[in-house]
Write a structure and sequence with these properties.
It is built from ten helices and 14 strands. The chain has helices at 2-12, 20-27, 31-43, 67-73, 92-101, 149-166, 220-223, 229-233, 239-259, 261-271, and strands at residues 47-51, 55-60, 83-89, 109-115, 133-139, 172-174, 178-181, 184-195, 200-209, 278-282, 287-295, 301-305, 310-313, 317-320. The strands form three sheets. It has a seven-stranded mixed beta sheet, with helices on both faces. A five-stranded antiparallel beta sheet has the order 13-12-11-10-14, with no helix packed on it. The protein has a two-stranded antiparallel sheet with strand order 1-2. A hairpin with a 2-residue loop joins strand 7 and strand 8 (184-195). The radius of gyration is 22 Å and the shape is elongated. It binds biotinyl-5-AMP.
Length: 323
């Protein structure tokens, strides 16, 4: 499309400006047509300066996630075949669950610029101002409900892979659902399931990732434990590319999971920051202290407690005890 060509030429211009005449000649269209495309790009949020003697120059690219670029970049089998991008929603997980119940195809992604009621686990809140990524994926794996926690681990592997590919941040996973950069939380996953006793009906895998938000948007108690990808790298991160990479990695790791979930567990082990550490794990009915020894085939964390017993925990909050 001519508009994409204009964008490419403007973005790659070394001196900054590209004359209208040159754009017209390169694309074999009139200068009036060039001007129309420039106006359309401005409507999409690109700030473009026009200087009569020099030509056009891109001053800033839009902050919003660009659905057109996203669809062009996502070349997946299942995850991201359909993407709903919303300016604002209460929770992408709730929206995706509604769509799943209404028959949305597997791989449907619901993403939003802002969430007004973002959910964490156990009724907690995920603070969701603009500038970050919030997305949920509808999955329909033919697995027993006790295997569902592996979907969280699979999602974490995909998100960490995508972050490492797109940014200089060496993200790691803290069991069960946290994404860390250094010693701070940069993202979280929330897996919600609808199931029969012996088979999953659908799973909604939700991902929240702090990308470019102003860290001052978080209340101080959360801010001191949190970070953003742009704070880690020192420059803004392209959210459209990152979202596309996450969709690609989810697609790849989901296929791997369906074929051989042990491979996902091996990847998880290589990206995690929990195994081998002294931890406190609090779950609904107990608090355990000990060494995080391993992850088992259902994704449970195996703890070696003080009395040298091994205990497997299916869900809980881990605090890593600093030495
Ligand atoms: C999580 O819960 O970490 C799961 C977060 C999942 C969010 C995504 S966004 C898209 C999808 N739609 C939803 O509605 N949710 C999912 P949990 O482990 O329970 O951690 C929650 C805790 O993290 C809160 O109690 C805060 O302490 C902290 N927190 C909240 N917002 C945060 C943020 N933006 N960055 C870092 N920490 C945050």
């Amino acid at each position: 499309m001519k508009r994409d060509d204009i964008l490419r030429l403007l973005l790659s211009a070394k001196t900054g400006y590209v004359s209208g005449a040159r754009l017209a000649q390169k694309l074999n269209i009139s200068r009036a047509a060039v001007w129309k495309h420039i106006k359309a790009l401005e409507l999409e949020g690109y700030e473009i300066e026009a200087v009569p003697s020099k030509g056009y120059r891109i001053m800033s690219i839009p902050d919003a996630i660009n659905l057109r670029d996203l669809e062009a970049a996502v070349k997946t089998k299942v995850v991201g075949r359909k993407v709903h991008l919303l300016p604002e929603v209460e929770s992408t997980n709730s929206a995706a669950a509604g769509m799943a119940s209404a028959g949305a195809p597997e791989g449907t992604i619901v993403a939003a610029e802002v969430q007004t009621g973002g959910k964490g686990r156990l009724g907690r809140t995920w603070i969701s101002p603009k500038g970050n990524l919030y997305l949920s994926v509808v999955l329909r794996p033919k697995i027993a409900p006790n295997k569902a926690p592996l979907i969280t681990l699979m999602g974490a592997v995909a998100v960490v892979s995508a972050i490492r590919k797109q940014t200089a941040v060496h993200a790691r996973i803290k069991w069960p659902n946290d994404i860390f950069a250094g010693e701070r939380k940069v993202g979280g996953l929330l897996t919600e399931m609808s199931a029969e006793p012996d088979q999953v009906r659908h799973i909604v895998l939700g991902i929240g990732l702090n990308v470019n938000m102003d860290a001052a948007s978080l209340p101080p108690a959360v801010a001191s434990l949190a970070t953003t990808l742009s704070a880690e790298t020192g420059s803004p991160v392209n959210r459209t590319s990152l979202l596309a990479e996450i969709a690609s990695e989810l697609d790849r790791w989901y296929q791997t999971f369906l074929k051989n979930d042990a491979e996902v567990l091996r990847a998880w082990e290589s990206m995690n920051m929990t195994i081998g550490r002294q931890v406190t794990v609090s779950s609904a009915n107990e608090t355990l202290q000990g060494t995080a020894e391993a992850i088992d085939h259902e994704g449970r964390l195996v703890i070696r407690t003080g009395d040298n017993a091994l205990k497997a925990v299916a869900a809980g909050d881990v605090t890593i005890v600093k030495k």
